[in-house]
Each structure stands twice: as C-alpha cells, then as structure tokens.
Amino acid sequence: MNLITSEITAFLSDALRCEVGPEDDYFALGLADSLFALELVTFVEERFSLTVEVEDLDLDSFRTADRITGFVQRKSGAAAHPEGP
C-alpha cells in the first residue's frame, strides 16, 4: 500500500470508526452517506492541496481508498502538467 492510500485508509477508518481496507466500498457497505462524501472531498482537498471541481464529483472516484488514490494521482499530474490553450 502506498503512502497516499495509507493516509486515506487511516482517515476513513478514523472517520467511519471501523477498519477500512483499500478496496472496501464503504458506501455499498452502508458505512457512509452523502454527508460523509462532503467530508471526504474536504479531506482530499485539504490534505493533498487539490481542488475538487464539480465535474470531478463522480461517486465512483470516491468509493474506495484505491479509487481516491487514483483520483489524487490524476489530479496531481494534471496540476503539474496543465493543458495549454
């Protein structure tokens, strides 16, 4: 498990008050709801210095720690290499 995934699973486990693995879909398991999704987006923005745009708000990108890791890596890469005009 890489550092980003470790930080995300630690946050999720603490916030949800149960052990969450990198591939656990906490929404499907009934551990999270739409209010938690807002908390999760705020965590991602603050911890990884990213801006989650409206078009980024696809629940599938936030269902598991592994998917959030992929999202963070894509956004970080996009921030490092913005598209030209």
Automatic annotation (TrEMBL):
It comes from the Bacteria. It holds the Pfam family PP-binding. Signal peptide: none annotated. InterPro entries: ACP-like_sf, PP-bd_ACP. Residues 1-76 form the Carrier domain. This is Acyl carrier protein. It comes from Streptomyces hazeniae.
